[in-house]
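Hi L.,

You mentioned the student needs an example of a multi-chain input paired with its predicted structure. This one should do, with 340 residues in total across all chains.
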Amino acid sequence: MNKTSSDTEKTSAMTQGLLAVWPICLGYIPIGLAFGVLAQKAGLGPLEIGLMSVFVFAGSSQFIAVSMVSAGAATASIIVTTFIVNLRHLLMSSSLSIFLKKVRREKLSLFAYGVTDESFAVNLSRFRHGDWNINAALVVNHAANLVWIASTVMGGYSGQFIPEGAFGIDYALIAMFICLLIYQLRARKYVIIAIIAGVLSVIFSLIIPGNSYIVLASVLAATIGVVFKKQIK
Amino acid sequence: MIENEYLMLVIGMGLVTFLPRWIPLFFLTKQNLPDVIVEWLDLIPAAILSALLLPALITTGDPRHLAIFQPELLVAIPTFIFALKTKSLGGTVVVGMSLFWLAGRMI
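Structure written out for the whole complex:
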């Protein structure tokens, strides 16, 4: 009864966010555990693992960093590699920025910390749908982050909780990307761009080591889309 | 005890991860972008999701090579149809996982 409207808004942003984020969390748990196990084998303790997940929060670059640590790589070269691996988030944040013009910069900074491949795709499709707000998006980013931190630390403590391949959990993120991609295919041009990007990405992934193929393929496909926009309409 | 060098490593990694996430949100939100950039950014999500997904379905190993008939792709077909029909993210994840688990038992 005494609830102000802003209180109600906050509660519903929390509920909305949690309802949207649980598939991401489900996908993060096995990957986080696996990361913890690997990091422990590379000689990192739970505290060190947790620190990396708090500061970095980027799955693939954390895996790469740990393998470089155990190979004895120099700190600077690990940081440079991390930068290259995570450069794709520049594109994702740019896409999200179109929907966040009225948001205060403090909130934007807090939001930026949690932009991952997964949260980006979930938030973007909701913003585009029009039923989304920055608070719910913040819940998505930070709930995913908490689950990531917790599962990496747990992996570091206990080794393998979940036996390999159990419940098909390795497929969680792939299935999620399939559905998120479908959300994006709202008109013919998006289908065409997705096909071009997918084919380019496969080709690049076969000839270029590392994961720069993702950025290369997306940038090239979107550019082709803009140049030939009359033809693909 | 955390060594200083490790602390430098995670802070450095954190910084180079945060900046690409933060710069566009901090600066691009406060100005109007040229139409051509907006059109380009509009195509990025479809492109990036497809670029993330397709290699995961049809390539494997290190160094990567093509593997068309792996369970990842076979399971993707019914998962794709389910997602297309239901548009449910959680449902798709659960269906995809179950099918992948079944595929693992059968092969």
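You could point out the following to them. Chain A touches chain B through 100 residues (CB under 8 Å). Chain A has two domains: 9-184, 186-233.

Best wishes,
N.
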